[in-house]
Design goal:
alpha+beta, 4-stranded antiparallel beta sheet, 4 strands, 111 residues, Alpha-Beta Plaits
């Protein structure tokens, strides 16, 4: 089994219910290809480094996936034709970092 981190950037005008549908759609694809989702994170609306398809911001969804490479091939095939998505990226990793939440809203105070 390979380990992958897969990030999707959806359009900035995507509603909360549409984001949930997108997450469910790609989760089902992963499960249909006998992969397992270790963790799903919704990073929320963040600024993009540059404009993509007239969007300055994007909704980020991040998956940590265990499975074969054919899962990633199928995900990317479906994401290329999805009009709600701006970008996607898959990275093969050696192990998952499940403790750190890089995009949490709460800021740590040093007292």
């Amino acid at each position: 089994m390979n380990l992958y981190e897969h990030t999707i950037i959806a359009r900035q005008d995507t509603s909360v219910s549409q984001l949930k549908q997108i997450t469910e759609k790609y989760s089902k694809i992963i499960e249909n290809f006998k992969g397992t989702i270790v963790k799903t994170e919704n990073w929320g609306l963040m600024n993009l480094s540059y404009m993509i398809k007239k969007n300055k911001k994007g909704n980020y969804i991040h998956f940590k996936i265990k499975g074969e490479s054919k899962i990633i091939n199928e995900l990317e095939k479906n994401e290329r034709i999805d009009k709600n998505l701006l970008r996607f990226m898959s990275i093969k990793v050696k192990k998952f970092d499940l403790e750190t939440n890089y995009f949490s809203k709460e800021e740590k105070k040093n007292n």
